[in-house]
Design brief:
One of its GO terms (molecular function) is 1-phosphatidylinositol-3-kinase regulator activity. The chain is α/β, with parallel strands linked by helices. The chain has three helices and six strands.
Length: about 120
Amino acid sequence: MMDDEEELPHHEERTWYVGKINRLQAEEMLCGKRDGTFLIRESSQKGCYACSVVVDGDTKHCVIYKTATGYGFAEPYNLYASLKDLVLHYKHTSLVQHNDSLNVTLAHPVLSQPPAR
């Protein structure tokens, strides 16, 4: 692994995990951010998480399921031991394989960016 990879804010859960906020609050946090800006939050579905990401200037949401085999967006892709592993994978891999309207990677953790002026 390259040294640069270790420096990515993606390795710091606090840059993208925002805990228990609702869909509207997630949209407010991501409003005006560049494509690929994302956050992970608790889902309204018990035991699940949600990924909110900016695509074409709009915020999209997808459920992250936690199963016996790990975290993921759908079977049989629930392969990640942690949310961080999932985030690191989709930093380089588009979400389009799960949803045609999600042609984006998890490029920019929402809390790693300088505040908007």
